Amino acid sequence: MENTLPQSINKIEPEKSTDTIEPLSINDFTTFFNKINAEFIKAMNKVDEIVLKNNVSDADIKYLKELNICFQVCKLDYLAYESYGFGIHKTLLQATLSDSYNRSLILFNDKYDETWKDKVNEYKIKFIQIGFETEFLLDFIIKLKNNLDILSEYYQVHVIREIFIPLDEYFDISRVSDIAEKEPDLLKRKQIYVTSIVDVDLLCIHNEIEPRNEKLHQTFIQKCRAIIDLLDFQIENTPVTTSDHNIENSVDESIKSKDFTTKRQVLALHYLLNEVGSKTGSVDRTVQARFIEFMTGKNYTSIYKALSDPLKGLDNTKNISTIEDMEYVRNQFDKLGLENITNKIKGDMNI
Prior knowledge:
Layout (H helix, E strand, L loop, with lengths): L6 H4 L15 H28 L4 H8 L12 H7 L3 H21 L4 H18 L3 H27 L12 H8 L5 H21 L4 H27 L24 H15 L8 H12 L3 H8 L12 H16 L3 H11 L2
């Protein structure tokens, strides 16, 4: 369609929102995009209403001015991927943004950009013909189109995956490092790099990439794996310190008891979890460690390492420390009258 508007009007370019915010939990992520979805639906419905009635009122202008139609990019906290798998991101977007995405296709008649430009030009003509608050409406429809462009691209990349993606930014190791270095816990930091490898691999599986980008992809994977190897080495060789938050047998300040060590708490919850659920042994160690961290408030890394072999050292009769830990835990369950657990501990101790 030929452009029939003055050049000065066509140059209007309302500001796009390119802001990003910190990764959100599933609940906050859902709330965030539900609000965006609702605002865009209201805006598109009002535009169609104005065009249909061929009239604009003061109330219509006030309504449009109160809408927030700046699309923002939001990331999901990596803990959500850890708990629910990598498909959770796509599922959440489908649940929150599909209405506004599908509604935009109706508003502009198509999903391709050239058609959108033609349709926007038709709206511009209609608003000029109406002749009320023309400049505001021209700015509004351009801003709406620009931000729906961003929403549409985001939705297609992460849900439909039908368009070409500039992959260079995904293969920038500094993007991941900037996030990872803010995480003091080494295991959590490692998980960020693991998640990034999977994310990038999935992106490449769903999108045909050029040879140049394939090389960048392989380089990115190699760097992530090299960092993961270094983190593994650091985790295995980090010496135990006297810090309350980092020592395997640390003392909780709120309890002030040298008997309540991390190792004993892990042992107790290990037996307790196995008692209440026969399938506990098949639960990922990361999930178990998170639960024990929640219950005890102790350091996650120490818990995770202790769970690798809760009964470590028990086969050595000279390991007095382990025997004392087992005796202490057994006595706690004995006081509670939990005979099944007490007997299991006795069996493990061969007494």
